[in-house]
Amino acid sequence: MASYASSSLVLFVAAAMVAAATVFVASPVAAHFPAGLPEPPFPNPWSAFQNLSGCHMGDERDGLARLKGYLSHFGYLPSAPSSSPFTDAFDADLEAAIATYQRNFGLDATGALDPSTVSQMVAPRCGVADVINGTSSMDRNSSSSHGRHLYTYFPGGPMWPPFRRDLTYALTATSATSIDRATLSAVFARAFARWSDATTLRFAEAAPGADADITIGFYAGDHGDGEGFDGPLGTLAHAFSPTDGRFHLDAAEAWTVGDSASSSSGAVDLESVAVHEIGHLLGLGHSSVQGSIMYPTIRTGTRKVELETDDVQGIQSLYGTNPDFKGVAPTSPSTSSRETDSSAAAYSRPVVSGFVGAVVAVGLLLLLPL
Ligand SMILES: [Zn+2]
Ligand SMILES: [Zn+2]
């Protein structure tokens, strides 16, 4: 009996070691987290939402008011009048807002705060709203005469006019980042080239001091446009619709450039976010296609800089096709599976309250005081 028991113990320990080893094999990079689980506790303005997992219609729970603020910021709920702030009651309006969010992100539209929905909500993202003026800009059932598509525009379809196909950009606020100027210039040049490769648009960095069509800057916290940044993660950046030209990045992010992106927890790849925000500057809204550049969230430690078919169709329908365009690069299976993970980080969102058509904040930064 004793030897049997000890053999069992040995077997159990061996099995546990195999299981532990399997976990390590499945997640070889320390900065990447198991699919479907919330990201670990480095600072994240939305991490308290994880306490709301399991909430559903009829519940009352501390923190639901703040979640309503989040959903309002990204366009899923109207903003609360100052005379009647959001409450912690899980009501029908919240259920409907969550269901719309779930449809936009390819989740089961249950209207309840299931773990996969909460995991998606806490992912870093663009500050631009997903739903603008009550219209779900990510409506998965949208279609056109060319068939079903998922790319979107800002309300009214603002774009750069036909006589403006050569656009200039300038790095106007870089004192809040430690990345050197030459590196920044190279990163943004590559990011703009992704879009000029596919279209008739051309971009050039403006000479120092010259006026530019597009201005790019790093800012911390409130910076004068009503879309203050929220520190590490949460909202990462935002940009405005044509022909505003403003593109703001959260200076508090652990921005990384190139291959260093996957090396540390909380690191956000600058070039990936830049390609996304430029899409907003040119008139694209958010897409429900998870592998697309215009998907609202991006996973930390992930590099995603190649336009996907949905991005290309969207931008070419606005600006035409570059005759030299070589087409969309095939997506590698590993990239696809990684980007399908719903715990990906999202960009910050820029839905600008009171915007008048022209302002399509794209990566909305969360302003929520979490
Ligand atoms: Zn801003
Ligand atoms: Zn965005």
Automatic annotation (TrEMBL):
Residues annotated as binding Ca(2+) 2: 213
List of residues binding Zn(2+) 2: 126, 276, 280, 286, 294
UniProt keywords, alphabetically: Calcium, Glycoprotein, Hydrolase, Metal-binding, Metalloprotease, Protease, Signal, Zinc, Zymogen
One Gene Ontology cellular component annotation held by this UniProt entry: extracellular matrix
Domain Peptidase metallopeptidase residues, every copy: 156-321
Pfam family membership, one: Peptidase_M10
Biological source species: Lolium multiflorum (Italian ryegrass)
Family named by the database record: Belongs to the peptidase M10A family. Matrix metalloproteinases (MMPs) subfamily.
Annotated protein name in UniProt: Peptidase metallopeptidase domain-containing protein
Database matches in PANTHER family: MATRIX METALLOPROTEINASE (PTHR10201), METALLOENDOPROTEINASE 5-MMP (PTHR10201:SF272)
Cofactor: Zn(2+); Ca(2+)
Cofactor: binding comment: Binds 2 Zn(2+) ions per subunit. Can bind about 5 Ca(2+) ions per subunit.
Annotated binding of Zn(2+) 1, by residue: 223, 225, 238, 248
Residue positions binding Ca(2+) 3: 230-231, 250, 253
Low complexity compositional bias, start-end: 329-342
GO BP annotations, alphabetical order: collagen catabolic process; extracellular matrix organization; proteolysis
UniProt: Ca(2+) 1 binding residues: 253
